[in-house]
Amino acid sequence: MKPSFSSLHEMWFDGHRNRNSGVEAQLAKTYREAWKSGDTSDRCNVLHFIFVRRDQTAFDLILDGIRTGNASVGSEAAAIACCLLNDGFELGPSIGESLKLFGERLPEWSEISAAALRLLANRETTNQ
């Protein structure tokens, strides 16, 4: 039986000092498939994998996560978006609206979305 994305991710992440490049390559090949499965645990681990690797080609999944109706996936994606914005990454033109709607949909997580929105506002002010 093929191991789940989450079990591979756990193996890869737990070995952070000596990460297995073979496992990382397998994760890189399968994260979109794992995302499509819709499994909450896999989706949260996909988001974490993207975040740790700073894989800009996968930032679209962070936006998908923010937009999802799943509170666990949405909150993970919003927190990751906030961290990436703080580190200066671009998450696309719809990130602000997505975060605003996320905060309205899940008010218990609105502090995270508000912090990310402040980072975006500060960035816009700085770039003017």
Report on the structure:
The protein has 128 residues and is mainly alpha-helical. It has one domain. Helix content is 74%, strand content 0%. It is built from seven helices and no strands. Helix 2 packs across helix 3, helix 5 packs parallel to helix 7 and helix 6 runs antiparallel to helix 7. The protein starts with a helix and ends with a helix.
Radius of gyration: 15 Å
Strand tally, please?
Answer: 0
Distance between the termini: 55 Å
Structural class: mainly alpha
Kindly report the oligomeric state of this protein: single chain
Number of DSSP helices? 7
Q: What share of the residues does DSSP label as strand, in percent?
A: under 5%
Shape descriptor = globular
Number of domains: 1
Largest sheet: none
Low-confidence parts lasting 5 or more residues at pLDDT below 50? none
Order of helices and strands: HHHHHHH
What is the averaged pLDDT score?
92
User: What proportion of the residues is helical, as a percent range?
Assistant: over 70%
Any chance you could write out the topology, listing elements then pairs?
Elements: H1 5-14, H2 21-37, H3 40-53, H4 59-67, H5 71-86, H6 95-105, H7 110-127
Helix pairs in contact: 1-2, 1-3, 2-3, 3-5, 4-5, 5-7, 6-7
